[in-house]
């Protein structure tokens, strides 16, 4: 048998690669992880999940002070001012603490960090900073980067046309921020800068925000964000951008065609999706081909078409989410070490961390109806408004609902959708229920603590059977 330097090398130390590497080492494999960034943690910890949540949390506190939310509770404030540098420093602290934490975990678990950019020499060898390293198995976990929009050139240094990384690092509150793309990044970052005082316009190609989410949730999202002062230009596309001095002029037109108009902005965020990182990896050296969407296809054990090479996370098909990448990291390590691993790709929750939060797991009502029609079955849907939930009402959080979708015959839960201040936390219950194959009756007869937002989940499940108590 060939003599390799390592049992396994992970390329990329994002939530997929770093979690996989730690798990592999825990399982006794000699493990290395290649990362070209200065810090570990990938997109998520450095320029994604964590910094965006730090700014969402901080900007929410600021908005509570400014919009009278705190005053309602008798918190008397003097003149409220924003110290953006302090907010950015808090964000940087969160990132530093967590990325440093991964470095500590690597040392603790004896995962070797190979610093630099990895390129495949052959299926068992990568070159990093001029040196070759071999492994029995190599796992590609290189993640994704922003999809560019032709005609709209991103320059994060100038800070006028930016991507999410630039939008996380602005040193000023824009007067007018135009967000191109009404998806997750657009709405999270749009919310941050709106709360801090910017006028925000969201230009979205489709007729609704948040593609992929349940239809009711998408409709409600438009209402809620409009109420919060975001201007929405749905069914609209950007056809070009020109920067002059500190201003950008965008040309927009109806997505279906028609007269064009221009909008001026001092900041433009391009957030039209992300694409897998596969360039510069030397995939041609190992004959690994990409699918039509530029992704690496794998089997259930994350094997690619090349023996000894597996792939996980944003670089393979599926939702581009940190927790999906993490679970795949654990599973691929377990497959390599033991021959089995588990990721249930049908039960991966998704959350938009705005206020309120938008969350879902499983099928949308539209998908469930379509599948039922195809198989000759039917579905039942139960909905419960947050307005009727005692805790949400007490906290002055009237927006949102919980919706439970179940099979009409078996009552098995097929999907759950929630809009609530803590929907991201609430959806974990639904994911667990679905993982265990629960029925809506199982949720309805599970005792939920009072007064909690989670009671809305129970009542929505009761509504599937036509009998909620509080509505
Ligand atoms: P990544 O995290 O992208 O990590 C890949 C790493 O590989 C990078 O560090 C890169 O430098 C390195 N790399 C690439 N090529 C090479 C090479 N050849 N050699 C060496 N190193 C290489 N998801 C959520 O679930 N929740 C959220 O709240 C959330 N918020 C987000 C907010 C923003 C603004 C963005 C942009 C994304 C957010 N995401 C969120 C998505 C999440 O960040 C990704 O799904 C996740 O990071 C994917 O993990 P990954 O390990 O596949 O790749
Ligand atoms: P997205 O896919 O969520 O949204 C992109 C939006 O841009 C879509 O609504 C799309 O219709 C629209 N669009 C595409 N081309 C357009 C055009 N030319 N003009 C106007 N609109 C256009 O992608 P986004 O927001 O960039 O996020 C990328 C990924 O990062 C997502 O897949 C998401 O999963 C992940 N992410 C997750 C977060 C979370 O879990 N909370 C937070 C941020 C990002």
From TrEMBL:
NCBIfam families recorded for this chain? lipoamide_DH
Q: Which family does it belong to?
A: Belongs to the class-I pyridine nucleotide-disulfide oxidoreductase family.
The alphabetized UniProt keywords are: Disulfide bond, FAD, Flavoprotein, NAD, Oxidoreductase, Redox-active center
The EC category is: oxidoreductase
Any further remark recorded for this protein: The active site is a redox-active disulfide bond.
Name the catalysed reactions. N(6)-[(R)-dihydrolipoyl]-L-lysyl-[protein] + NAD(+) = N(6)-[(R)-lipoyl]-L-lysyl-[protein] + NADH + H(+)
Q: What is the lineage of its organism?
A: Bacteria, Pseudomonadati, Pseudomonadota, Alphaproteobacteria, Sphingomonadales
Q: Which residues form the Pyridine nucleotide-disulphide oxidoreductase dimerisation domain?
A: 348-461
Q: What is this protein called?
A: Dihydrolipoyl dehydrogenase
**Annotated GO MF terms:** dihydrolipoyl dehydrogenase (NADH) activity
Q: What is the cofactor note?
A: Binds 1 FAD per subunit.
SUPFAM superfamilies membership: FAD/NAD(P)-binding domain, FAD/NAD-linked reductases, dimerisation (C-terminal) domain
Enzyme Commission number(s): 1.8.1.4
């Amino acid at each position: 048998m060939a003599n390799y330097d390592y049992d396994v090398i992970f390329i990329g130390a994002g939530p997929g690669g770093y979690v996989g590497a730690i798990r592999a080492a825990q399982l006794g494999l000699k493990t290395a992880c290649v990362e070209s960034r200065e810090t570990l943690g990938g997109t998520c910890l450095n320029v994604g999940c964590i910094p965006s949540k730090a700014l969402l949390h901080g900007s929410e506190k600021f908005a509570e002070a400014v919009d009278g939310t705190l005053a309602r509770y008798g918190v008397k404030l003097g003149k409220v001012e924003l110290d953006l540098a302090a907010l950015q420093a808090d964000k940087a602290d969160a990132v530093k603490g967590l990325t440093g934490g991964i470095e500590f975990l690597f040392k603790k678990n004896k995962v070797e960090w190979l610093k630099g950019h990895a390129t495949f020499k052959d299926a068992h060898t990568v070159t990093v900073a001029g040196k070759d390293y071999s492994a029995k198995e190599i796992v590609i976990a290189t993640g994704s980067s922003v999809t560019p929009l032709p005609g709209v050139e991103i320059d994060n240094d100038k800070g006028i046309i930016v991507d999410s990384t630039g939008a996380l690092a602005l040193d000023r509150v824009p007067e007018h921020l135009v967000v191109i793309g009404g998806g997750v990044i657009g709405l999270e970052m749009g919310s941050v800068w709106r709360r801090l005082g910017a006028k925000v316009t969201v230009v979205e190609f489709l007729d609704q925000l948040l593609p992929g989410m349940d239809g009711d949730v998408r409709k409600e999202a438009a209402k809620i964000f409009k109420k919060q002062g975001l201007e929405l230009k749905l069914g609209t596309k950007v056809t070009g951008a020109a920067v002059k001095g500190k201003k950008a002029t965008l040309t927009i037109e109806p997505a279906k065609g028609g007269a064009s108009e221009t909008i001026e902005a001092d900041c433009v965020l391009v957030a039209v999706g992300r694409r897998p990182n596969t360039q510069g990896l030397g995939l041609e050296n190992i004959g690994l081909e990409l699918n039509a969407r530029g992704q690496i296809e794998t089997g259930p054990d994350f094997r690619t078409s090349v023996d000894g090479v597996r792939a996980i996370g944003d670089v393979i098909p599926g939702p581009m989410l940190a927790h999906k990448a993490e679970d795949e990291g654990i599973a691929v390590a377990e497959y390599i070490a033991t021959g089995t691993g588990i990721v249930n790709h049908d039960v991966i929750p998704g959350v938009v961390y705005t206020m309120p939060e938008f969350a879902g797991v499983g099928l949308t009502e539209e998908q469930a109806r379509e599948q039922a029609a195809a198989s000759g079955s039917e579905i039942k849907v139960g909905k419960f408004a947050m307005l009727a939930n005692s805790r949400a009402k007490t906290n002055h959080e009237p927006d949102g609902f919980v919706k439970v979708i179940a099979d009409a015959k078996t009552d098995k839960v097929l999907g759950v959708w929630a809009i609530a201040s803590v929907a991201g936390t609430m959806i974990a219950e639904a994911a667990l229920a679905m993982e265990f194959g629960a029925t809506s009756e199982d949720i309805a007869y599970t005792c939920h603590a009072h007064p909690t937002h989670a009671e809305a989940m129970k009542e929505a499940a009761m509504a599937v059977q036509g009998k909620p108590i509080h509505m």
